[in-house]
């Protein structure tokens, strides 16, 4: 594999990391689920067990609360290319959340709700690069967060 091919794979995988944040923040359910392979494993911190398969991930994101405003800021994205069809990745996200957004009113919450760490496996599919696995761990969480994960 030449350097240009390696850089292209890194770019495509980093784009998935960024689109994850955009689609979950916008609650674009179809686009969010389509970031994953059909047999993907996704482990959100708030879910007790990993979600397996794109259809399960789609059902999960469709049930995501619609009454709050969130913004994920992805950073420190590192992608390691394994071969032409596989890569791994790692990144952080700082998450801001307004639990009771009001149209036209700026949120007064100016501190992050949490800092999370993602661990990813990517696979090239017939649809292009997708998450084969995405797991995350919450590293920092506001003390007053009402939706604290149990695991």
What key attributes describe this structure?
globular, 151 residues, six-stranded mixed β-sheet, alpha+beta, Nuclear Transport Factor 2, Chain: A
Question: How does this structure look, described?
Answer:
The structure is a single chain. This protein is an alpha+beta fold and 151 residues long. The protein has one domain: Nuclear Transport Factor 2, Chain: A (Roll), CATH 3.10.450.50. Helices cover 25% and strands 42% of the residues. It has a six-stranded mixed sheet with strand order 2-1-6-5-4-3, covered by helices on one side.
Helical fraction equals 25-40%
Question: How much strand content do the residues show?
Answer: 35-45%
Query: Could you name the CATH class?
Result: Alpha Beta
Strand order of the largest sheet: 2-1-6-5-4-3
Assign an overall shape: globular
* Category from helices, strands and their pairing: alpha+beta
Gyration radius (Cα, Å) is 16 Å
Low-confidence stretches: none
Distance between the termini: 40 Å
Can you give the mean pLDDT? 91
Corresponding CATH architecture: Roll
In short:
The chain has helices spanning 3-26, 29-33, 54-62, and strands at 36-43, 51-52, 69-83, 86-98, 114-125, 128-141. The chain has 151 residues and is of the alpha+beta class.
